[in-house]
Amino acid sequence: LRILFTITSWIWKLSFWAISFLKPWKKRFINQEPDMKYRTWTLCLLLLLVIGVFNGFSLPEEVSRLEIDAFESPRRPGSIFDHDAHNEKAGLDDNCAVCHHVYEDGKLVADESSEDNYCSDCHGLRPTAENSVGLEAAFHRQCKECHFESAKGPVLCGECHRNN
Questions:
Q1: How far apart (Å, rounded) are the C-alpha atoms in residues 95 and 62?
Q2: For residue 49, what are the contacts with CB-CB under 8 A and spacing of at least 6?
Q3: Which residues lie below 8 Å from residue 139, measured CB to CB, with a gap of 6+?
Q4: In Å, how far are 87, 116, 127 from 92, measured between CA atoms?
Q5: Do 114 and 101 touch, CB atoms closer than 8 A?
Q6: pLDDT digits 0-9 by tens, 64-122
Q7: Residue 63 CA neighbour count, 13 Å, CB half
Q8: Residue 141 and residue 157: Cα distance in Å, rounded?
Q9: E strand map for the chain
Q10: How far is the C-alpha of 70 from the C-alpha of 136, rounded, in Å?
Q11: Closest to 142 in 3D by CA, of 131, 132, 133
């Protein structure tokens, strides 16, 4: 993602440089015939439109920050998480139950997914008699254990909980 943003910012810088580069031709432009001015402005607007369209399509989709509203006083911002990119990198395909698990009577229900629920629907802020795993521990265990097992993905606090 940073590469896309870097490329996009360079394109914008290049377009501003091009505009400043064209300033010496300002006198030529002012003395042009009306038809030539129209063509020049049309070309400039078309160029800006192409840059704008490229910039719009290069922005990431579905990158979101995980909700932390359930926490009373969060110490860090919610994790920035691109769901589709994560699943593609992890090779999860359509197996949602890997992350969105369901437990009944303390046992994992195979191939059952809780993707339509919030983690806080089952996990309270603190461990309870019904669920011995608190919400923060649920998030961290689910993500970090998988990342440790696969030896891929972020495991340190600042790698997920970023301000940008």
A1: 19
A2: none
A3: 66, 79, 119
A4: 5, 17, 29
A5: yes
A6: 777 777 788 888 888 888 888 888 888 887 788 888 888 888 888 888 888 888 888 88
A7: 11
A8: 13
A9: 63-65, 80-82, 103-104, 107-108
A10: 10
A11: 133
Q: What type of residue sits at position 151? A: A
Q: Considering Cα of 124, then 128, then 130, then 134, what sign does the dihedral take?
A: positive
- Six-digit token string for 44: 């400039």
Q: At what angle do helices 2-21 and 34-58 cross, to 10 degrees?
A: 170
Residue 75 CB partners (closer than 8 Å, separation 6+)? none
Q: Encode pLDDT of 51-66 as tens digits.
A: 776 666 555 555 677 7
